[in-house]
Amino acid sequence: MLLERADHDLMCWASVLVSLVVANPEHAGRFAEALLTRTGSRAEWLSIRLARTMDLLVDGHTTAGWLPSDLIRVVSRRADAEAAAVVASALRYQAHRAGPQGVDPEWQEEIDELPPGLDVDPFTRAGLRNILLVIAALRGLPPLPVIVTPPPPLARCA
């Protein structure tokens, strides 16, 4: 029970940081550094959880009708090009996970036209900064009509 409470408290603190990043994206690096230094031994766990949250948000938005190019535009506008490159990598990985038979040809065209990706290391200030920016940029996007079938979400892939 104590461990669950500590995990819950850390996720609440991370949620507050994401809200602050929504309000002040230019401070994301400082917030990432605070997150890594102030959570002590739980920093690794929290970084992994935030990276997983980012992947689930990307998957969720593609399932909700957002095309890869739309997500890149939104993240570029709400955050920056580096955070958009992280989303490009997440989208490419999503298509890779599904395999060639699991990706609609139109979806694959979208993936092929994405800008270069950027792999993220959630245990570094820069990596966590980008994760926080992506989470903040994707929060609150409404669902859209699905016009191209996306790959299956992360939870359903083997």
> What distance separates the N and C termini?
30 Å
Gyration radius (Cα, Å) is: 16 Å
Write down the domain tally.
Answer: 1
Question: What is the number of beta strands?
Answer: 0
Spans with pLDDT under 50 lasting ≥5 residues?
Answer: none
- Helix-strand pattern, N to C? HHHHHHH
Q: Tell me, what's the shape? A: elongated
Largest sheet: none
Instruction: State mean pLDDT (0 to 100 scale).
Output: 83
Structure, described:
This protein has one domain (2-156). Helices cover 66% and strands 0% of the residues. The chain has helices spanning 2-23, 28-38, 43-63, 68-78, 81-98, 105-112, 125-138. The longest helix is centred in the first third of the chain and has 22 residues, at 2-23. The model has no long low-confidence stretch (mean pLDDT 83).
Structural features:
mainly alpha; 158 residues
Produce the secondary structure layout:
Blueprint: H1 2-23, H2 28-38, H3 43-63, H4 68-78, H5 81-98, H6 105-112, H7 125-138
Helix pairs in contact: 1-2, 1-7, 2-7, 3-7, 4-5, 4-7, 5-7
Short characterization:
The chain is mostly helical.
